[in-house]
Write a structure and sequence with these properties.
By secondary structure, the chain is an alpha/beta fold. Helix content is 46%, strand content 9%. It comes from Paenibacillus piri.
């Protein structure tokens, strides 16, 4: 054994150095701590709340980000709309205790929230296996920031511009919002794309998210966590995806079994309030949505006290 270790000592030392350096970088966690690196929507949520990781939450995908104006709301909810966020993501957040939801927990479900195969942001921390190296997991973002670092070092040393030596462009820290209204021609193309990608789907294509919903329902019941569901608005100038009626029935049946209050806004907003098919316009639709959700939550709070 000693002979084998001596023979392979160089390789073993390299491996040990890599593991140690990866552990140090992981402890630094630049995807969270450094503005040199890209931030996902979960990290952005924490950043804009001074890294507070507990409280009442309005969870969903980008439709929630676009529709719910937290600063104008009287509900006290933290807007946790995640780009391509799904119920499987919320389950992972609570299961891994990445955020302590203290209630109420409001979940916005739109036409994409339950689709298992919908691609999401791979940088969300719950996707990283414990054994996978940090640098490998976020390799694309290390490459992006590393390229910038080399460029600035070149300017600082070769071009003798010392002010540029360690300069960098802070990565965007805000979530995407939706202003104005896209033209009908573009919306029609988007609907055709949705129909091609998702229109044929059935219950088997959202079974993982249905299981996640059942887990969340039981989790909330066990902890007496007030749970509320909002069916997020869809631009009713265009037909709903074919799978939505069946999905809605499946979800509502489970919600009714747990007596979870539901606010159905799926087809109540006129097209003029939308930026596109699933995102309300920040100027027109979002203020109305925020007030409507606030009023609904207030009525639930009053009825629970009476």
């Amino acid at each position: 054994m000693i002979a084998i270790l001596r023979k392979n000592s160089f390789v073993l030392l390299l491996l040990a150095a890599f593991v140690l350096s990866d552990l140090l970088i992981s402890a630094w966690n630049p995807m969270v701590s450094s503005r040199r690196f890209y931030k996902n929507d979960f990290t952005k949520t924490l950043y804009h709340h001074q890294w507070q990781d507990r409280g009442p939450v309005f969870f969903g995908n980008s439709s929630v980000t676009g529709a719910f104006i937290e600063k104008d709301s009287t509900s006290g909810l933290v807007e946790m709309g995640l780009s391509y966020g799904k119920l499987t993501d919320l389950k992972a957040i609570m299961e891994q205790q990445r955020y302590q939801v203290e209630g109420p927990l409001v979940i916005g479900i739109d036409v994409h929230t339950m689709i298992d195969s919908l691609e999401t942001d791979p940088t969300y921390p719950w996707f990283k296996p414990w054994y996978q190296p940090y640098v490998y997991t976020y390799r694309d973002y290390f490459r992006d920031s590393g390229t910038e670092l080399v460029r600035q070092l070149y300017k600082g040393t070769v071009e003798l511009n010392r002010s540029q030596l360690l300069a960098y462009e802070p990565r965007w820290i805000d979530k995407e919002l939706y202003y104005g209204r896209k033209p009908d021609e573009e919306l029609r193309k988007k609907w055709d794309d949705y129909d091609r990608r998702f229109g044929w789907m059935t219950q088997s294509d959202y079974k993982d998210n249905l299981r996640a919903l059942e887990w969340i329902l039981q989790y909330a019941k066990d902890r007496q966590l007030p749970l509320r569901i909002v069916w997020m608005p869809w631009n009713k100038g265009y037909a709903l995806p074919n799978y939505m009626n069946g999905l809605k029935q499946d979800v509502n049946r489970r919600l009714a079994a747990y007596q979870v209050p539901v606010l159905d806004l799926l087809q109540t907003y006129e097209p003029k309030y939308f930026h596109d098919l699933v995102h309300l316009s920040r100027q027109e639709g979002a203020p109305i949505f925020t007030k409507e959700v606030d009023a609904w939550l207030l009525s639930l709070a009053k009825s629970s006290k009476s």
